[in-house]
């Protein structure tokens, strides 16, 4: 279907040619409420940068693009307190803080999307997660036209998890995020590639630059190759299962979790299954970064779904581990269960 007025092609980083019934750009909360009141009887979806979604079909309802902007900065003796509206671009926000001499977000540079989406899956990279710097999240209850503020603890952050995927999903939007950044800066160089060049990373700006450099060399730019970053989460498995894998693959990358569990790199599993660079129809597994599924140009949703199924089944056959998508699947009527879609 062609839909020049309501195409979502430039609003999802997979670059899929999907249509919505209506697209609304919300620069204030009144527009959010009005649009919800007018169209909530049909599917209604709030979007940021579209960098964590896979549309399975045309969307039979209203897509609202979050354009709430504004940043304000306060401080205590020890900390910077930053309040940022949810529609601000995440990377621009990180850059803003570094330029203003407020360190702490440099490891999270160049992650696509908006500030408001960052708490939803507790974005993380290079040894830092949003939960480490988030003070609070402001949400709007669209049915009651009522705002509430959740503390960091109330957000129930976990690995790619938060309360915003559960209790506060339907009928709520994130309108702003509060950050607390310590004035006494402690670099986090725990992640391998940063550790390797530790001595040259003496300022927040140098870490920011290094993270951008590494990311640009490793990850496909969605402006050139459609993708949504890591397609699958890194599975967390029982330690005894990891021991079995270690016998066959002594170099397998495991990361200790809570007692009795370890995390294993999903990209490594896909690579070991021989799928790096694998191509079928108009979709593929990125040749440098196996965790990233790509649109080879003019892909249809079914090309990416078939690819994701194939990757998931192949990894299961070799390792008896089911990969779970990190990307959110959006059907005609709204979000659908990604695991069920691929089963
Ligand atoms: C190249 C690339 C690299 C990436 N690297 C990383 C990485 O290193 N670490 C990482 O964690 N992620 C990474 N991602 C994933 C993605 O950037 C993050 O998940 C990001 O936070 C998504 O933001 P978005 O605004 O694009 O969300 P969208 O895709 O627009 O939305 C995602 C979901 O959140 C909902 N949503 C969006 N905004 C709101 C709001 N204000 N209130 C309520 N619900 C909302 C949407 O309805 C949807 O269900 C990467 C993606 C790409 C393309």
Protein described:
- With 343 residues, the chain is α+β, with helices and mostly antiparallel strands.
- Helices cover 24% and strands 27% of the residues.
- It contains 8 helices and 20 strands.
- The chain has helices at 29-39, 90-99, 192-195, 204-218, 239-248, 266-272, 301-319, 338-342; strands at residues 20-26, 44-47, 53-55, 59-66, 71-75, 79-85, 124-125, 128-129, 134-141, 146-151, 172-182, 226-230, 236-238, 254-256, 261-264, 279-280, 283-285, 292-295, 328-331, 334-336.
- The protein starts with 19 loop residues before the first strand and ends with a helix.
- The mean pLDDT is 96.
- The site of flavin-adenine dinucleotide has 33 residues, from strand 2, strand 7, strand 11 and strand 12.
- Flavin-adenine dinucleotide is lined by residues 13, 45-53, 66, 86, 111-114, 116-118, 120-121, 123-125, 173-174, 219, 222, 227-229, 328, 335.
Topology:
Blueprint: E1 20-26, H1 29-39, E2 44-47, E3 53-55, E4 59-66, E5 71-75, E6 79-85, H2 90-99, E7 124-125, E8 128-129, E9 134-141, E10 146-151, E11 172-182, H3 192-195, H4 204-218, E12 226-230, E13 236-238, H5 239-248, E14 254-256, E15 261-264, H6 266-272, E16 279-280, E17 283-285, E18 292-295, H7 301-319, E19 328-331, E20 334-336, H8 338-342
The structure holds flavin-adenine dinucleotide (FAD).
Flavin-adenine dinucleotide is lined by residues 13, 45-53, 66, 86, 111-114, 116-118, 120-121, 123-125, 173-174, 219, 222, 227-229, 328, 335.
